[in-house]
Design brief:
Blueprint lengths: L2 H6 L4 E2 L3 H18 L6 H11 L7 E3 L4 E2 L5 E3 L3 E3 L4 E3 L4 E3 L4 E2 L4 E3 L1 E2 L4 H5 L2 E4 L2 E3 L4 E2 L4 E2 L4 E2 L4 E2 L4 E2 L7 E4 L4 E5 L1
Parallel strand pairs: 2-5, 3-6, 4-7, 5-8, 6-9, 7-12, 8-13, 9-14, 12-15, 13-16, 14-17, 16-18
Antiparallel strand pairs: 1-11, 10-11, 18-19
């Protein structure tokens, strides 16, 4: 398996692999272009997003600045809104359903590191997919950790740290994030 295949399979991989490094450089180039646009340049922004992301629905708004590791592993549905300063570490797939809204500075981390210091010192990393359902609101400053699924129609409170799956149709908040009540 290539290092990219290992990364997407959730296995230990070397992030320093030349193919992965080249893809990250391209993502940073596209980030610079995107983040330099203004609100009057919707067509330019949309063209960059369609080149950058693995998939994006017809209506998408991402307020700059926005950064991600690759972009090609982000699969966004229709009517996505991401406020200023969002970060997606998409070392594995990040699926965003329809009508997903994120407050400012929301971070989605598919990437993580081994707890064994020898593996970390070798430069090995891990990644697990993130799945966010339809009609989800994620409040500002929330962090969604690797391997998490958030169900449809759920609201995640601002500042939450989501370390485990959150079911559909609930309001959840806190550190660690927990269900507060049904919708």
């Amino acid at each position: 398996m290539t290092e990219k295949q290992k990364m997407l399979a959730g296995e230990l991989y070397l992030a320093s692999d030349p193919e992965l490094a080249a893809e990250r450089r391209e993502a940073r180039r596209l980030a610079r272009l995107y983040n330099a646009t203004t609100e009057e340049e919707d067509e330019t922004r949309n063209a960059i997003l369609r080149e950058w992301l693995g998939k994006c629905g017809p209506r998408i708004t991402i307020e700059p600045p926005f950064v991600c590791d690759y972009g090609s592993n982000i699969f966004a549905g229709d009517n996505l809104y991401m406020n200023f300063g969002c970060v997606i570490l998409d070392c594995n797939t990040v699926e965003l359903g329809d009508n997903v809204m994120m407050g400012p500075n929301v971070h989605l981390y598919a990437a993580y590191h081994p707890t064994d210091p020898r593996e970390r010192l070798e430069g090995r990393e891990l990644a697990a997919p993130i799945r966010i359902g339809n009609n989800v609101w994620i409040g500002g400053g929330a962090i969604v950790c690797p391997g998490v699924t958030i169900g449809d129609n759920t609201t995640i409170g601002a500042g939450s740290v989501v370390v485990k799956d959150v079911p559909a149709n609930v309001v959840a908040a806190g550190n660690p994030c927990r269900v507060i009540r049904p919708v």
